[in-house]
Amino acid sequence: MNRHIKRVVSFKLLDVVISSDLTWDAHVSYILSKSSKRIYCILNLCKAGVPTRDIVYIYCSVIRSVVQYACPVWHPGLTSKLSKDIERIQKRCLRIIFPQLSYSEALDKYGLNRLDTRREEISKQIFRPIKSPTHPLHYLIPPPNVSSSQMTLRPMYPYQIPKCKKTRYGKDFIPYGIARKY
């Protein structure tokens, strides 16, 4: 059976847009447009006089969940520009909900975190169990360093990122978690 595989610039798999150049620009623009459409809901709730606690809950459920869906997959590969673009969505929502407060004051008022901090925490929560030998994905982690010839006073992080000629590898989830020493 001779079948031709069609070459595409990007495709969506489980609501994550993967592009042929392996950057996350297309995915970020997709989630930004999807969440921007939902901001109208927040605006109408504020105009209707719904309590702010309920609006923040709806924001977290309807908008923030879209912005951080599958973030361990794409968070390590984000550029600072893309990260700022994503953060701008939360700033817009909090400016609508709390027009009199600054961004940091609005975050503190309801115990919210910056989105980059949340993505980092989610990635950390997912990576830590993978270090357990009983975890099904444990085989993806390189074997720990066993250096008995050197005596160190401090405990060292047991994993090292394998050397690779391409920088793209370091932006994957497993090398990113090892580099961050989760």
What coarse outline follows from CA principal-axis ratios? globular
Low-confidence stretches: none
The overall strand count is 2
Structural class: mainly alpha
In whole angstroms, the N-to-C terminal distance is 46 Å
Number of distinct helices: 7
The H/E string reads EEHHHHHHH
Q: Estimate percent helicity.
A: 40-55%
Percent range for β-strand residues: under 5%
Strand order of the largest sheet: 1-2
Largest sheet: 2 strands, antiparallel
- Computed CA radius of gyration, to the nearest angstrom: 20 Å
Characterization of this structure:
- This protein has 182 residues and is mainly alpha-helical.
- The chain has a domain at 10-130.
- It is 51% helix and 4% strand.
- Strands 1-2 form a two-stranded antiparallel ribbon.
- The relative contact order is 0.10.
Task: Summarize it.
With 182 residues, the chain is mostly helical. Helices cover 51% and strands 4% of the residues.
Please describe the structure with a list of short key phrases separated by commas or semicolons.
single chain; mainly alpha; two-stranded antiparallel ribbon; globular
Topology record:
Elements: E1 10-13, E2 16-19, H1 25-48, H2 52-67, H3 71-74, H4 80-97, H5 103-109, H6 115-130, H7 173-179
Antiparallel strand pairs: 1-2
